[in-house]
Amino acid sequence: MIRRPHAALAALLLLVLLATGCGGLPGSGPAPSLYVLTPKNTFPHDLPQVEGQLVISLPTAGRALQSDRIALRPIPEEIKYFKGARWISNLPYMVQTLMLESFENTGKITSVGREAITLRPDYQLLTEIREFQADRFSSGPPTANVRLNLKLIHQPEQRIIAAKTFESRTKAEHNTMKSVIQAFDRALGDTLKDSVSWTLRRMGRNGSGEE
To answer: Does residue 10 have a pLDDT over 60?
Structure first.
Protein backbone atom coordinates (compact mmCIF):
# COMPACT_ATOMS: atom_id res chain seq x y z
CA MET A 1 0.00 0.00 0.00
CA ILE A 2 1.40 3.41 -0.98
CA ARG A 3 1.14 6.08 1.69
CA ARG A 4 0.50 9.66 0.77
CA PRO A 5 1.57 11.75 3.77
CA HIS A 6 1.05 15.04 1.97
CA ALA A 7 -2.58 14.22 1.15
CA ALA A 8 -3.22 13.06 4.73
CA LEU A 9 -1.66 16.23 6.13
CA ALA A 10 -3.77 18.40 3.82
CA ALA A 11 -6.94 16.61 4.93
CA LEU A 12 -6.02 17.08 8.59
CA LEU A 13 -5.34 20.78 8.02
CA LEU A 14 -8.74 21.21 6.34
CA LEU A 15 -10.48 19.65 9.35
CA VAL A 16 -8.64 22.02 11.71
CA LEU A 17 -9.65 25.04 9.62
CA LEU A 18 -13.30 24.00 9.62
CA ALA A 19 -13.25 23.40 13.37
CA THR A 20 -11.79 26.84 14.05
CA GLY A 21 -14.23 28.80 11.92
CA CYS A 22 -12.37 28.75 8.60
CA GLY A 23 -9.15 29.95 10.18
CA GLY A 24 -9.45 33.61 9.17
CA LEU A 25 -10.51 33.07 5.57
CA PRO A 26 -12.10 36.12 3.83
CA GLY A 27 -15.66 36.67 5.05
CA SER A 28 -15.15 34.91 8.34
CA GLY A 29 -15.75 36.42 11.78
CA PRO A 30 -18.70 38.42 13.11
CA ALA A 31 -20.15 41.16 10.96
CA PRO A 32 -19.74 44.71 12.31
CA SER A 33 -22.69 46.46 13.93
CA LEU A 34 -24.17 49.15 11.66
CA TYR A 35 -25.35 52.48 13.03
CA VAL A 36 -27.45 55.25 11.51
CA LEU A 37 -28.19 58.77 12.76
CA THR A 38 -31.50 60.62 12.44
CA PRO A 39 -32.48 63.79 10.56
CA LYS A 40 -33.66 66.86 12.44
CA ASN A 41 -37.40 67.45 12.48
CA THR A 42 -37.91 70.35 14.92
CA PHE A 43 -37.07 73.91 13.85
CA PRO A 44 -37.89 77.49 14.82
CA HIS A 45 -41.43 78.50 13.88
CA ASP A 46 -40.32 81.78 12.31
CA LEU A 47 -38.26 80.27 9.47
CA PRO A 48 -39.09 81.96 6.15
CA GLN A 49 -40.90 80.19 3.34
CA VAL A 50 -38.25 79.95 0.61
CA GLU A 51 -38.87 79.82 -3.12
CA GLY A 52 -36.42 78.31 -5.59
CA GLN A 53 -34.41 75.11 -5.78
CA LEU A 54 -31.53 74.14 -3.52
CA VAL A 55 -28.95 71.50 -4.41
CA ILE A 56 -26.96 69.89 -1.61
CA SER A 57 -23.59 68.76 -2.92
CA LEU A 58 -21.90 65.67 -1.51
CA PRO A 59 -19.90 66.90 1.49
CA THR A 60 -16.13 66.83 1.38
CA ALA A 61 -13.98 65.50 4.22
CA GLY A 62 -10.43 64.63 5.10
CA ARG A 63 -9.14 61.18 4.30
CA ALA A 64 -9.78 59.85 7.82
CA LEU A 65 -13.50 60.66 7.51
CA GLN A 66 -14.10 59.46 3.93
CA SER A 67 -15.27 56.09 5.19
CA ASP A 68 -18.07 54.23 6.94
CA ARG A 69 -15.77 53.63 9.92
CA ILE A 70 -16.58 55.49 13.16
CA ALA A 71 -13.64 57.67 14.12
CA LEU A 72 -12.15 57.84 17.61
CA ARG A 73 -9.51 60.36 18.69
CA PRO A 74 -7.62 59.16 21.82
CA ILE A 75 -5.18 62.09 21.63
CA PRO A 76 -5.42 65.30 19.59
CA GLU A 77 -2.80 64.09 17.10
CA GLU A 78 -4.19 60.61 16.36
CA ILE A 79 -7.25 59.11 14.70
CA LYS A 80 -8.34 55.53 15.32
CA TYR A 81 -11.63 53.69 14.70
CA PHE A 82 -14.09 51.82 16.89
CA LYS A 83 -13.73 48.07 16.42
CA GLY A 84 -16.76 46.17 15.15
CA ALA A 85 -18.85 49.29 14.46
CA ARG A 86 -19.61 51.10 11.20
CA TRP A 87 -21.91 53.82 9.94
CA ILE A 88 -24.62 52.48 7.67
CA SER A 89 -22.95 54.18 4.69
CA ASN A 90 -19.96 56.31 3.79
CA LEU A 91 -19.93 59.28 6.20
CA PRO A 92 -20.18 62.13 3.61
CA TYR A 93 -23.11 60.36 1.90
CA MET A 94 -24.86 59.77 5.25
CA VAL A 95 -24.47 63.43 6.23
CA GLN A 96 -25.78 64.55 2.82
CA THR A 97 -28.85 62.32 3.20
CA LEU A 98 -29.59 63.54 6.73
CA MET A 99 -29.17 67.16 5.67
CA LEU A 100 -31.53 66.64 2.71
CA GLU A 101 -34.18 65.05 4.93
CA SER A 102 -33.80 67.81 7.51
CA PHE A 103 -34.47 70.50 4.89
CA GLU A 104 -37.54 68.57 3.73
CA ASN A 105 -38.77 68.27 7.32
CA THR A 106 -38.95 72.05 7.68
CA GLY A 107 -41.71 72.31 5.05
CA LYS A 108 -40.24 75.72 4.22
CA ILE A 109 -38.50 75.13 0.90
CA THR A 110 -39.96 74.59 -2.57
CA SER A 111 -37.42 72.06 -3.82
CA VAL A 112 -34.28 70.48 -2.39
CA GLY A 113 -32.23 67.61 -3.77
CA ARG A 114 -28.87 66.13 -4.61
CA GLU A 115 -26.83 67.22 -7.62
CA ALA A 116 -28.38 66.06 -10.89
CA ILE A 117 -27.74 66.83 -14.54
CA THR A 118 -31.36 67.78 -15.16
CA LEU A 119 -31.74 70.03 -12.10
CA ARG A 120 -30.96 73.72 -12.49
CA PRO A 121 -30.76 75.03 -8.96
CA ASP A 122 -31.09 78.60 -7.75
CA TYR A 123 -28.73 77.81 -4.86
CA GLN A 124 -26.05 75.25 -4.10
CA LEU A 125 -24.92 74.28 -0.61
CA LEU A 126 -21.31 73.16 -0.18
CA THR A 127 -20.43 71.35 3.03
CA GLU A 128 -17.05 70.40 4.45
CA ILE A 129 -16.97 67.89 7.31
CA ARG A 130 -14.14 69.18 9.48
CA GLU A 131 -14.81 67.14 12.62
CA PHE A 132 -16.85 63.97 13.04
CA GLN A 133 -15.19 61.83 15.68
CA ALA A 134 -15.48 60.82 19.30
CA ASP A 135 -12.82 62.55 21.40
CA ARG A 136 -11.66 60.49 24.39
CA PHE A 137 -8.69 62.20 25.99
CA SER A 138 -9.33 60.62 29.41
CA SER A 139 -10.70 57.39 30.88
CA GLY A 140 -14.28 58.69 30.99
CA PRO A 141 -16.94 58.50 28.25
CA PRO A 142 -15.94 60.16 24.95
CA THR A 143 -17.38 63.35 23.51
CA ALA A 144 -18.97 63.37 20.05
CA ASN A 145 -17.49 66.28 18.10
CA VAL A 146 -19.27 67.44 14.92
CA ARG A 147 -18.13 70.49 12.96
CA LEU A 148 -19.43 71.47 9.52
CA ASN A 149 -18.39 74.39 7.33
CA LEU A 150 -21.11 75.60 4.94
CA LYS A 151 -20.95 77.82 1.87
CA LEU A 152 -24.16 78.97 0.15
CA ILE A 153 -23.69 79.58 -3.58
CA HIS A 154 -26.09 81.61 -5.72
CA GLN A 155 -26.51 80.20 -9.22
CA PRO A 156 -25.90 80.55 -12.10
CA GLU A 157 -23.17 83.11 -11.39
CA GLN A 158 -21.65 80.79 -8.74
CA ARG A 159 -21.35 83.59 -6.21
CA ILE A 160 -20.79 82.79 -2.54
CA ILE A 161 -23.42 84.77 -0.65
CA ALA A 162 -22.75 83.36 2.82
CA ALA A 163 -20.39 81.05 4.69
CA LYS A 164 -20.39 79.83 8.27
CA THR A 165 -19.07 77.03 10.50
CA PHE A 166 -21.34 75.12 12.88
CA GLU A 167 -20.10 72.91 15.69
CA SER A 168 -21.60 70.87 18.50
CA ARG A 169 -19.94 68.72 21.16
CA THR A 170 -21.95 66.20 23.20
CA LYS A 171 -20.48 63.99 25.90
CA ALA A 172 -21.68 60.38 25.98
CA GLU A 173 -23.47 59.38 29.16
CA HIS A 174 -21.70 56.02 29.36
CA ASN A 175 -18.58 54.41 27.97
CA THR A 176 -20.57 52.17 25.61
CA MET A 177 -21.05 52.13 21.84
CA LYS A 178 -24.78 52.75 22.19
CA SER A 179 -24.15 55.83 24.30
CA VAL A 180 -21.50 57.08 21.87
CA ILE A 181 -23.94 56.80 18.94
CA GLN A 182 -26.60 58.66 20.94
CA ALA A 183 -24.09 61.44 21.60
CA PHE A 184 -23.29 61.62 17.87
CA ASP A 185 -27.02 61.82 17.11
CA ARG A 186 -27.52 64.75 19.49
CA ALA A 187 -24.41 66.58 18.30
CA LEU A 188 -25.29 66.20 14.61
CA GLY A 189 -28.92 67.07 15.34
CA ASP A 190 -27.91 70.39 16.92
CA THR A 191 -25.58 71.12 14.02
CA LEU A 192 -28.22 70.28 11.42
CA LYS A 193 -30.82 72.45 13.15
CA ASP A 194 -28.51 75.46 13.12
CA SER A 195 -27.21 74.78 9.58
CA VAL A 196 -30.65 74.35 8.00
CA SER A 197 -32.10 77.37 9.81
CA TRP A 198 -29.16 79.57 8.79
CA THR A 199 -29.38 78.45 5.15
CA LEU A 200 -33.10 79.12 4.84
CA ARG A 201 -32.76 82.55 6.44
CA ARG A 202 -29.93 83.47 4.09
CA MET A 203 -31.91 82.25 1.07
CA GLY A 204 -34.96 84.19 2.22
CA ARG A 205 -32.91 87.33 2.79
CA ASN A 206 -31.26 87.05 -0.61
CA GLY A 207 -34.62 86.43 -2.30
CA SER A 208 -35.98 89.65 -0.82
CA GLY A 209 -33.08 91.61 -2.29
CA GLU A 210 -31.22 92.11 1.01
CA GLU A 211 -27.51 91.47 1.43
So the answer is: no
